[in-house]
Amino acid sequence: MAQSVLLTGAEGHVGEAILDGLADAYEWRLLDRDPPTGDPPGEFVVADITDEAAVRQAMEGVDAVLHVAGDPRKTAPWESVLPNNIDGTKVVYDAAVDAGIEKVAFASSNHAVGHYETDERTPEMYRTDDEFRLDGTELPRPGNLYGVSKVTGEALGRYYHDEYGLSVVNVRIGNLTKGHPPIDYERGQAMWLSYRDCAHLFDRCIKADYDYEIVYGISDNDRKYYSLERAKEVLGYEPRDNSAEWDGDEMVA
User: Fold this and answer.
1) What is the pLDDT of residues 27-38, one digit of tens each?
2) Does the annotation mark 146 as catalytic?
3) What single string gives the DSSP state of each residue in the chain?
4) Entry pTM
5) Residue among 26, 93, 116, 146 flagged as catalytic
6) Total structural domains in the chain?
């Protein structure tokens, strides 16, 4: 019997990528504040992530949670990130504990460490040929209030793992685009995450065994700001795409 998975933020960018590759892989329960725009591959719950009763009801009977809901704007003000990204994440963790769920994957962001890129004093241990190779062990350095909310979400996951034994993986997502990497945008190409690699990565978050982890969510691009070693080692992540192999039409197989 297929596992049952709750996906929050199902109508968002990350949710679209996950369902694009995994629609038939699990029994889905989907939650979003907006109604579905198409034919969802499972039960759809229209509710705000801060609605405790609705989230608890959506959590009933599922085996794992992919929490990708929240305000995704890097310019989002505190008045938005506090309820949508921080309070909502706590609601999810509380409901997961009470429902007896063992595994939660949280969609964090590269913005949790955004200020490493702006500081010339970045330690040499994070540089390889003038490129960043952050691996998740570094201290967070959020580049905006959105990044602050993601760091807070990671810290909440750490607490709920230590206090309640939840298995938690935080995926610091890079530049997620559909079909092709960002054009004429070198930084975006280094941070690119393809749709199929995104779906595969969150599939591994459901299937793998782990305690508490922070991993980076990018494709296997020739140039990288972030290390993929932990995602490969702990989750069994095997990315297939590389922004350097984009030929202007379609990805090279």
Assistant:
1) 999 999 999 998
2) yes
3) -PPEEEEESTTSHHHHHHHHHHTTTSEEEEEESSPPSS--SEEEEE--TT-HHHHHHHHTT-SEEEE--S---TT--HHHHIIIIIIHHHHHHHHHHHHT--EEEEEEEGGGGGGGTT-TT--GGGEETTEE-B-S-SPP--SSHHHHHHHHHHHHHHHHHHHH--EEEEEEE-EE-SSSPPTT-HHHHHTEE-HHHHHHHHHHHHHS--SEEEEEE----SS-SB--HHIIIII-------GGGB-SSSB--
4) 0.93
5) 146
6) 1
